[in-house]
Amino acid sequence: MGSFSIWHWLIVLLIVVMVFGTKKLKNIGSDLGGAVKGFKDGIKEGGQTPADSAAAPAGQVSQDTRTDKNTIDVEAKHKS
Questions:
Q1: CA 55 to chain centroid
Q2: How many angstroms separate the CA atoms of 33 and 55, rounded?
Q3: Is 71 helix (H, G, I), strand (E, B) or coil?
Q4: pTM above 0.70, yes or no
């Protein structure tokens, strides 16, 4: 009951490719890569210096000029 050999892993890989297909695995890989890139960009934006954050007025949200067809724009309203 030790670790698997290389032949076991190759058979598992072959079964995964047969079940999902190469196109589906390629899409999963590109989605994962996009998610990692988005995460890294978010980390970079979160590490702004205080001088950068002081440029935007307090209480206002800056407008992002990038558009994404999957983004839904909503407006939050406060209860009075």
A1: 27
A2: 32
A3: coil
A4: no
Tokens found for residue 19: 């079940």
Return d(Cα 14, Cα 48) in angstroms, integer.
Answer: 46
pLDDT reported for residue 75: 76
User: How far apart, in whole angstroms, are the C-alpha atoms of residue 52 and residue 64?
Assistant: 15
Fill in the amino acid letter for 70.
Answer: N
In whole angstroms, give the CA distance from residue 33 to residue 66. 19
Tell me the residue type at 73: D
* pLDDT tens digit sequence for 7-36: 999 999 999 889 988 888 888 889 999 999
Break the chain into its structural domains and give their ranges: 21-49
Cα–Cα distance measured from residue 16 to residue 22, given in angstroms and rounded to the nearest whole number? 9
